[in-house]
Design a protein that fits this description.
Number of strands of chain B: 3
Shape of chain A: globular
Structural class of chain A: alpha+beta
Radius of gyration of chain A: 36 Å
Largest interface: A-B, 24 and 18 residues
Helix content of chain B: 40-55%
Order of helices and strands of chain B: HEHHEEH
Oligomer: heterodimer
Structural class of chain B: mainly alpha
Number of strands of chain A: 22
Largest sheet of chain B: 3 strands, antiparallel
Number of helices of chain A: 24
Strand order of the largest sheet of chain B: 1-3-2
Largest sheet of chain A: 6 strands, mixed, barrel
Distance between the termini of chain B: 32 Å
Strand order of the largest sheet of chain A: 3-4-9-6-8-7
């Protein structure tokens, strides 16, 4: 009588060996017990009890076996410390790189945004077709939020502020000014105290502030009684009404280098005229109200934008104005996603190479272990048992590698954060936390199976036969093929990574070799802004900048100083249309348009702008003097088609068009990459500050960037300049003191980070592939020592032997290179997003990377081949 | 290794007077303990495997006369080491019993 089918299934929980040793007996005893049971109940009981005991023994037996395998593996590893060290080191690099990037991916992409129901949040932009999105003006924010039924809209605007209070010196921090409804829109409550109340943003209300968790901890030692205390912000006392939760970030903080420490209610004047719409500064964030969708909200905002275009035709002159809603998550993390996924792909490939390397090492060692395995199998170990043992060994190795990889991961993360903590949003929150450790462990197990499975099956297959045949190693075709496959794989991945790294390197070189058009050396930059209540009109504003710059110029070590509304590679501007004297409008449109900047004398000189023709602005370009303007080469090129624009006159439009004078072009400046080294140069105009009249009625430029050319170290002038400006007016806000070289470097920081990481991973891949190829070739030669000895003894020339070995090795290398290059052609086109002025199929990179690997492969084959020719035929034959 | 579980000890006791196959062990244990220790095929072979692995019992090389033999059956016997283990366990229990008697937890056995 056969035992029922279910019983066979249950037996399967037992380890294979247990089953094969005792399965039949268990079945037999079970049947006898059943047969002798007096009644159905007793029979049932036998079945249930037997099944239960087998089910409980199964896992225990597996565990016991695992313990034995691990103990055995550890014993084996102790015998070969250098082999083990190489394997663990290789895996630590591969797993460590992946763990580091996973930690970053987790912090940057996978962590939920710190807002309730974040997928119902969107960012509100102004958009004109074909142009970058623009923030909102005060009037626009008020209009949008009053007119929308589907959205609750809040606005934020970040500005540097000087704060003091609690312990420590006064410090310069970012202060975010938000509409009082902002926390409600984001769905966040302070951990302590309360949020802003409606009306707290209104003019004339008492001054209140929310502080960040960090600020609370550092300056108030996490004291719960902080609520109601005063904190001084830009010299004015503010009452602390609440503390934000730990880890909370304002949407404007994502990807910003500096952190927001205090939040203040944004002061918006609902009663002020709504026709001033040009000063766009507000970051609009909106929650889609319950019961509606993003699409419905977009449709509604489309109507709002078309109504506004009709109400304020001269404010929305540019074609195709619309209000754009972007899901908040895409907006905050969209760019980071590309970068992180790209890095993840790169480190994944590195791990593949590392695995191939280790698999190769295991295969090579397996040759040496064939007798040991043959003996085990002769002593009764099944093939499955041997395979399992070998897989356990590789898992033990890779878990050790994962452990060491955690150290590597921490190290890589620190390195990345040192290069640029602001390169990715939330990068500073990346930790080697429990889930990351779990990831490393899982990756270790997966890797162990990946690199262990081929060698294990290869080695266990022949285990029985080897003892009988006396094992002439290296002759088994399948084993050789497996090793060759690994070399080909490594080479192809290495060339793929090298090409990706090469493309980024070339792109970075292209970007950084773009002439900035300025001379950033020894230039200090500082943001200075004035309070409108103290500087209501042009006269007050201009006079402050003139007087303060005079003081700065008088400081020792200052060679030139000026102020401008923009800053190359950092602060840009929108464009402004103008008429050109003697040229007709086309369809009512002004023939010219350019990005505009207001500059004081000394600004262009301090930054090293170069004059192509004409002259620089001077102190005599006052309100009374004939109005002038400077243009860049792009204006001369695109609007004057090579004619000399000097002496030509232009007149700007806007709400103040009737007050704008004809301005004579007095100078042409060499093009400067204002918008970024990787961005095309746009037409630009520069107004002397005293002759400037904003296109919107009554608007003044009160925020300017001071640029100071110094003799020595720019940073040494920060304190003296601050002191001078404070001496003039303590209410002046100063922020963001940076040297211009830092500004230039920061503008390409993300590219530098991509390059350094992918470059480093590419080099790692290169090193691993080199070691792997060399190892395989060396082993290959070793295995063929006898054969080569015979050849030499029979009179083969050493040169022939050399050629033979090299040709065989290089065949694999070339195959790998071909496959990898083809893979690169297929896989790199999405990289175009990350590249500047380099095609993803750049011919130079596609030649150099494979050539480099070819050369390295050649060396890796040559050295073992050379050793082969030195084989002493007698020794070789004797060892047979 | 000591103390053994009651089931393990009973398996050793069952084998103390000679080699037996699995089902015979199971039946003897049930009979001797009046069913208070009820082994089944799973628990029995869990114990057998462990004892074989540790060298306490061994698969017997000799087989009964062909008429009585069932080729599916394996016979097990105590090794010398197994006998020592069984003795040691019995002594351990004896010592424990002595202690319990000394404290009059259970009545003293009359001297034999």
């Amino acid at each position: 009588m056969m035992a029922p089918q279910w019983f066979h299934w249950i037996l399967r929980v037992l380890p294979f060996d247990f089953r094969s040793d005792y399965g039949r007996e268990i079945e037999q005893v079970y049947q006898e017990q059943r047969r002798e049971a007096p009644n159905t109940t007793a029979r049932m009981r036998v079945s249930v009890e037997t099944a239960a005991s087998i089910l409980s023994i199964g896992p225990r037996e597996h565990l016991i076996q695992l313990r034995q395998d691990i103990a055995y593996a550890l014993r084996g590893m102790r015998r070969q410390p250098s082999f083990v060290a190489v394997v663990i080191f290789t895996l630590a690099l591969g797993i460590g790189a992946n763990t580091a990037i996973f930690g970053i991916m987790k912090a940057v992409l996978l962590e939920p945004l710190p807002y309730a129901d974040a997928d119902r949040l969107a960012v509100v932009w102004n958009r004109w077709e074909g142009r970058a999105a623009a923030p909102l003006s005060d009037a626009e924010y008020l209009d949008y939020s009053e007119r929308s039924k589907t959205l609750s809209i809040a606005a934020a605007w970040t500005m540097a502020a000087s704060v003091s209070g609690g312990v420590g010196d006064p410090e310069r921090v970012d202060a975010v000014h938000v509409t009082p409804n902002a926390l409600g829109v984001l769905g966040v409550e302070p951990v302590l105290g309360r949020a802003f109340r409606a009306g707290e943003g209104d003019v004339g209300q008492g001054k209140v502030a929310l502080i960040s968790h960090d600020f609370w901890r550092n300056r108030f030692e996490s004291s719960p009684s902080v609520i109601g205390k005063a904190v001084s912000i830009d010299g004015l006392p503010h009452e602390i009404i609440g503390v934000m939760p730990e880890g909370f970030l304002w949407p404007t903080e994502f990807g910003a280098a500096s952190k927001v420490r205090v939040a203040l209610p944004l002061q918006l004047d609902r009663a002020s005229p709504r026709n001033v719409r040009g000063a766009r500064r507000l970051f609009g964030m909106a929650r889609i109200k319950p019961g509606t969708t993003l699409e419905a909200a977009e449709a509604e905002m489309n109507i709002v934008s078309s109504v506004l275009t009709q109400e304020y035709p001269d404010q929305y002159r540019l074609a195709n104005f619309r209000i754009d809603l972007q899901p908040l998550r895409d907006e905050l993390l969209g760019d980071a996603r590309n970068v992180v996924l790209f890095l993840a792909a790169a480190v994944g490939l590195v791990l593949l190479i590392a695995s191939a390397n280790v698999a190769n090492l295991l295969l090579a060692r397996g040759e040496a272990r064939r007798r040991e395995l043959a003996i085990r199998s002769a002593l009764g170990a099944s093939r499955w048992r041997v395979t399992r043992q070998l897989l356990t060994e590789s898992c033990v190795l890779s878990l050790a590698g994962a452990g060491a990889g955690l150290v590597v991961a921490i190290w890589i993360q620190r390195l990345i954060m040192n290069i640029d903590p602001g390169a990715l949003p939330r990068l500073d929150q990346a930790r080697v936390s429990l889930p990351v450790i779990a990831f490393a462990g899982a990756l270790g197990c997966a890797t162990g199976l990946l690199f262990g499975v081929v060698p294990a099956f290869q080695m266990s297959k022949g285990a029985n036969a080897d003892l009988k045949s006396g094992a002439r190693a290296g002759t088994d075709k399948a084993r050789v093929a497996a090793r060759h496959l690994l070399v080909v794989t490594q080479m192809s991945i290495a060339v793929l990574l090298l090409i990706a790294g090469g493309l980024l390197a070339r792109s970075f070189l292209r970007v950084t070799s773009v002439p900035t058009g300025i001379n950033p050396q020894g230039v200090l930059t500082l943001q200075v802004s004035l309070i409108s209540s103290r500087y209501p009109g042009a006269a007050e504003v201009n006079s402050f900048f003139d007087r303060s710059l005079d003081r700065v110029r008088a400081l020792p070590g200052v060679r030139a100083a000026g102020a401008g509304s923009g800053l190359p590679l950092s602060i840009g501007s929108g464009d402004w249309g103008f008429d050109i004297e003697g040229r007709a409008r086309v369809n009512g449109r002004r023939p010219g348009a350019a990005d505009w900047f207001v500059v004081t004398p000394g600004y262009l000189e301090a930054l090293g702008f170069q004059l192509v023709s004409g002259r620089m602005p001077t102190v005599s370009d006052t309100e009374q003097a004939a109005p002038i303007v400077l243009v860049n080469e792009a204006v001369a090129r695109t609007l004057f088609k090579g004619d000399d624009p000097i002496g030509r006159r232009i007149r700007f439009g806007g709400a103040t068009a009737d007050q704008q004078p004809w301005r004579t072009i007095a100078g042409v400046l060499r093009d400067v990459r204002t918008r970024g080294l990787d961005q095309p140069v746009r037409p630009e105009v520069y107004f002397p500050h005293r002759q400037f009249l904003h296109f919107a009625q009554g608007v003044q430029i009160r925020a300017m960037t001071f640029v100071v050319k110094t003799q020595g170290e720019p940073s040494s002038l920060v304190s003296p300049i601050r002191a001078e400006l404070r001496g003039l007016d303590p209410s002046v806000t100063m922020a963001d003191a940076r040297d211009m070289e830092g500004v230039v470097a920061a503008s390409v920081a993300d590219r530098r980070l991509h390059l350094m990481l992918v470059g480093a991973f590419g080099l790692l891949a290169l090193a691993l592939a080199t070691i792997g190829t060399y190892g395989t070739m060396a082993f290959h030669v070793l295995q063929r020592t006898q054969e080569i000895g015979v050849r030499l003894a029979l009179g083969a020339a050493p040169r022939d032997v050399l050629n033979l070995v090299i040709v065989q090795g290089m065949r694999l290398v070339l195959m790998g290179l071909a496959i990898g290059t083809l893979l690169a052609l297929v896989l790199t086109p999405p990289m175009a997003l990350l590249l500047f002025d380099v095609s993803p199929r750049d011919i130079a990179v596609y030649s150099i990377a494979p050539a480099l690997l070819f050369a390295i492969g050649l060396v890796a084959c040559y050295i073992p081949a050379l050793r082969a020719t030195r084989v002493d035929p007698l020794t070789a034959l004797r060892s047979e | 290794m000591l103390p053994l579980t009651p089931s393990m000890f009973q398996v050793l006791i069952a084998l103390a007077d000679g080699e037996k196959h699995g089902y015979a062990i199971l039946k003897e244990v049930a009979r001797r303990t009046g069913g208070s220790i009820a082994l089944n095929a799973g628990t029995l072979y869990g114990i057998i495997r462990r004892f074989v692995h540790e060298g306490v019992i061994a698969e017997s090389a000799t087989r009964p006369t062909p008429a009585l033999d069932d080729e599916r059956r394996k016979y097990y016997s105590l090794t010398a080491f197994g006998r020592d283990v069984a003795r040691a366990e019995a002594r351990r229990m004896e010592t424990a019993l002595d202690m319990a008697r000394a404290k009059a937890l259970i009545p003293r056995t009359p001297p034999a």
